[in-house]
Structures are given as C-alpha cells and as structure tokens.
UniProtKB/TrEMBL annotation:
It comes from Demequina muriae. The chain crosses the membrane at residues 12-29, 35-52, 64-82. This is DUF3017 domain-containing protein. Keywords: Membrane, Transmembrane, Transmembrane helix.
Amino acid sequence: MPRTRLTSSRTALVALGAVTAAVAVGALVDVQAGVLALAAIAVVGAVTRLTLPAGKAFSVRRRYVDVSVLSAFAVALTFLALSTPLS
C-alpha cells in the first residue's frame, strides 16, 4: 500500500486519539496511569517505526532518530511516573 495523504491523515488521527485518551485517563482517573499510558504509546510508536517499512509507519525524520527520540521519551516518562509522587 503506497503512502498517500489519506493514510498519513489516518495515522496522525490514531496517534492524536491515543494521546488524547491517555491525557483523559490522567485527568479523570489517575495521573500516574495517564503518564504510564503516554509512555506505552511512545513504546508502541518506537516499535512500529522500527519494524514497519518507511511508507507504512508515521515517520518524521530518519528511522534511528524517530526510534531514539520515542525510546528516550518512553524511558523518561516511565521513570517520572514511577519515581514522582503524583496526586
């Protein structure tokens, strides 16, 4: 399946929806759960970007940059969620 404007829009909407859901969990349920959900989204994004071909993954820059940034983001969020007293 070639990369088209429609597939890029769908991918962006899925990512936006996932982040919105994680923020809603943080606001309505528990802050720590919301931050851990954001970390999980970053992990899923890194794995997706690492495994899928360039035309099927949501890519911004080169693959190693995207995977590195998403992985660092996931590690930082996980560390903060588990080590900071959130209420």
